[in-house]
Protein: HupE / UreJ protein
Amino acid sequence: MTFSNRAPAAWRRWLLGAVLSLAAAALAHGVSESDKGFLQGRNGVQILPFLYLGAKHMVTGYDHLLFLCGVIFFLYRLKDVGMYVTLFAVGHSTTLLMGVLNGWHINAYLVDAIIGLSIVYRAFDNLGGFRTVFGVQPNKKAAVLIFGFFHGLGLATKLQDFALSQDGLIPNMLAFNVGVEIGQLLALSTIQIAMRYWRSTASFARHAVKSNFALMTAGLVLAGFQFTGFLTK
Structure:
């Protein structure tokens, strides 16, 4: 895919409104007040509740899902989908678990801005931007793994804002991590089914470029909001 196609002005205006609405929803993504109260009020090993909360986080994680949509957009073989998603899961799980257990704490706005830029990167790559503009092609697998580290670190940073009990912390975080991967599998299965159906229609070829421009725009909006928060708070 290249930058040769351009969306008409009316479509771009509609896209801007849709992206702004998506950004507002995405900014609310994190841990709800009810879940926060649960996390802060529990002592000891709580495998099933943390498993559920981990899955819920991923299923409602707009930033993660947008990135994964970009990753699998042009992947047609399940083998390739599995490879890239596994790389993301390894990166995400590593920094989520190690970040909480070792107290790695980075400004949440900054990490979330990088996560927004990861969506931009993925969509730009899907559009053939690196070859067209820079004449190079970064390693796709390495990029997915590296951005997986940032996605996991973002959640680890948020979790550390809560007074998590040290009693049962390791098994609880392991359960949360497993829940995240279960949620990712469920969400990704739904996305993959929808993508396979869409690819079987004529509209995929017509709208693939526009869709990646939409992904890139959404990532830019998310990153912009987060950078603003980082600079002003």
